[in-house]
Write a structure and sequence with these properties.
Elements (H helix, E strand, L loop, with lengths): L1 E5 L4 H12 L3 E6 L6 H4 L3 E4 L5 H11 L3 E4 L6 H6 L1 H22 L3 E7 L22 H18 L4 E7 L1 E3 L17 H10 L5 E4 L11 E2 L1 E3 H16 L5 E5 L5 E2 H12 L5 E4 L8 E2 L4 H7 L8 H14 L7
Parallel strand pairs: 1-2, 1-4, 2-3, 4-5, 5-6, 6-11, 7-10, 8-13, 9-14
Antiparallel strand pairs: 9-12
Helix pairs in contact: 1-8, 3-5, 5-6, 7-9, 7-11, 9-11
The chain binds nicotinamide-adenine-dinucleotide (NAD).
The site of nicotinamide-adenine-dinucleotide has 28 residues, from helix 1, helix 5, strand 5 and strand 7.
Length: about 325
């Protein structure tokens, strides 16, 4: 299969690209390298282009002739989306529509889209199923939901089939391929706690210890990046076999608290570090845990690395090898 991977120089896209190539698929990475890393693309083909450049996208699609597209490229900082919504509408909505148009024009019919649990907003019931109300509380989640809606319209018009994967918290590393998480700024808990263990951050911070959870700290659902990448490959195969479009949650189905993550990093790293407990942060819901029954039933996806220990171990291994990320 010829697969165009947008955002393939980023964290999850690079792992998916390497998995596809390892399984004999022809891969072309498209990335503007604003947040991505050339080193993460290694020897795969890379086209440096921006989603906001429709003629570049048309050129790439007509030359490469993708049979499917995995669309990871996006801006995904919640705080930034609230401060600069236009940036998110341009990149995540208009840019994604440019991509869809170029794919349709080139005859490509299948897309796997990186959506997010942020489309749900505050959880009314946990675990969250796909039918949970969609009331995004930030513009990042809103832009992802808007593009999901555009994809549903293209599907109804018979122009593009799509699997939207609403993932919860991606974590861990592909240690065999030497690929890991290197975001600037880093907003995700596991790499931030690991940075404290490595001494590159002075301390780990806990925001809120009085939530109605087992230990008072926020609970989140972490999915190993290799399990996420596997879900994308399954979704692509499902579309190619014309299993039809669909929307699926992607999570472990079990939640881990901030304190559990900190304890796991201490155990795995064998290092102690300062932890500062502070007040709640505005907008953090107490618990976000996915129901992944639908993707298990319909695509046969099973997480191979569901334990927090193995997720943290792989991340620790990568970060200790690359304390300054890909620049190490
Ligand atoms: N990491 C998570 O926990 C998580 C959770 C839910 C959803 N997601 C979604 O998954 C996708 C991948 O996440 P990630 O953590 O790998 O992100 P990332 O920032 O590491 O990778 C995104 C890549 O897209 C590229 N990109 C961004 N805007 C672009 C544009 N306009 N044109 C071309 N390239 C562009 C960046 O340079 C980067 O390489 C994103 O769509 C994100 O919203 C991530």
């Amino acid at each position: 299969m010829r697969v165009l991977v947008t955002g393939g120089a980023g964290y999850i896209g690079s792992v998916a690209s390497r998995m596809l190539a390892g399984e004999g698929h022809e891969v072309l990475v498209l990335d503007n390298l604003a947040k991505g890393h050339r080193r993460a693309v290694a020897d795969l083909d890379l086209e440096v282009a921006d989603l906001e450049d429709p003629s570049a996208l048309s050129g790439v699609c007509s030359r490469f002739g993708p049979e499917a597209c995995m669309h990871f490229a996006a801006d995904s900082l919640v705080g930034e989306s609230m401060a600069d919504p236009l940036k998110y509408f341009r990149s995540n909505v208009a840019g994604s529509i440019n991509l869809a148009a170029a794919l349709v024009e080139s005859g490509c019919r299948d897309m796997v889209f990186s959506s997010t649990a942020a489309v749900y907003g505050d959880a009314e019931t946990v675990p969250i199923t796909e039918t949970h109300p969609k009331r995004p509380v930030n513009f990042y989640g809103l832009t992802k939901y808007m593009f999901e809606q555009a994809l549903c319209a293209l599907d109804r018009a018979g122009q593009l089939r799509c699997v939207c994967l609403r993932y919860f918290n991606a974590a861990g590393a592909d240690t065999a391929a030497d690929l890991g998480e290197d975001h600037h700024p880093e907003t995700h808990l596991i790499p931030r706690v690991i940075a404290a263990a490595l001494g590159s951050e002075p301390r780990a911070e806990v925001f809120g210890t009085d939530y109605p959870t087992t230990d008072g700290t926020c609970v989140r659902d972490y999915v190993h990046v290799l399990d996420l990448a596997r879900a994308h490959v399954l979704a692509c195969e499902h579309l190619q076999e014309t299993g039809g479009s669909g929307i699926f949650n992607l999570g472990n189905g079990s939640g881990f608290s901030v304190r559990q993550v900190i304890e796991t990093v201490r155990r795995v790293s064998g290092r102690n570090f300062e932890v500062v407990e502070g007040p709640r942060r505005e907008g953090d819901p107490p618990a976000l845990v996915a129901s992944s029954d639908k993707i298990r039933d319909e695509l046969g996806w099973r997480p191979e690395h569901p334990e927090l220990e193995s997720i943290v171990s792989s991340a620790w291994e990568w970060h200790s090898r690359h304390p300054n990320g890909y620049d190490s």
